[in-house]
Amino acid sequence: MSDISVLGLGNMGSALAGALLESGRSVTVWNRSAGKAQPLVERGAHLADSAQEAIAASPATVTCLKNHEATTETLRPLAAQLSGKAILDLSTGGAEEAEDLVEMLNGAGAGWLIGMINAYPAGVGKAETSILCASPPQVWEAHCGAIRAMGGASAHVATMAAAIPALFASLFTARQGFMFGLIYGGAVCRKAGLPMEALVAQIPVTLGVAEKYAETFANTVPDQSYDNPGAPVSVYLAALDDVMATFEATGTADEFPRLMRDITRRAVDAGLSEKELTALVDMLAGTAGR
Asked: Residues 173, 209, 240, CA angle at the centre, nearest 5°?
């Protein structure tokens, strides 16, 4: 028997298995193409001949496959062997796929944990890396040590499987929204003939403003406190109208700023002109006033 098994040895799965080995745990690994396991075997991992053998070897198994659906497809034929085991799925995927996986695991008598890794493979195993997890409390209590060996700042945030895909969607949208803002900003600067170095030099300033946005979000959204804004929705709409005028004048593709302007205009039309911009959370969710 080993302490823990890992199914899926892509870049991320290999990093997870490596972190578990570094923590002093005995690790069994499996991958459809066995060659990917060799570096881990050289570090002391045991290579299983099948997913079934890997699961049988340990009380808990980390799965890091293409997505939740792939995890379900891999484990469903092994359902009879899952009773009493814990499956710690760190694959990606949507809420429905996560719920389908959990339904299958519950039916097989297995414990479950759905986790979201907030790092690239190079960050796995570091103290500042977080894996945000949803599971029954007893599964977290039993396996949080292994999870924190893979990410020292990991935390249990929910008991519903769908919570993790929703959290991933929200954080990914926020991060990529910033990147797409830079992409569209770079495009309008290019069209206007502005040296790109001038934009790059201002990115740290923009990051400082983003920190203030994060504070505003934290101070207003949880309890829906949108009165007495620092700058109301109407001010943002005026600024976005100016932004759109510049994009149109330079002939720059404007899908992203147009989306922001149109949603902000919807908020004004809905009577939110003097509210904090974060009031749009409840407008978009259909939960305004609840």
From this structure: 70
Contact 111, 83 (CB under 8 A): no
Neighbour count for residue 128 (Cβ, 10 Å): 10
* Domains of the chain, earliest start first: 4-158 (3.40.50.720), 166-285 (1.10.1040.10)
- What is the sign, positive or negative, of the torsion defined by CA atoms of 123, 124, 126, 130? positive
- pLDDT tens for each residue of 182-216: 999 999 999 999 999 999 999 999 999 999 999 99
Q: Cα(228)–Cα(286) distance, rounded to whole angstroms?
A: 22
- Within the chain, strands assigned E span 4-7, 27-30, 46-47, 60-63, 86-89, 111-117, 131-134, 155-158
**Statement: the pTM of the whole predicted model exceeds 0.90:** no
Strands (E), 3-130: 4-7, 27-30, 46-47, 60-63, 86-89, 111-117
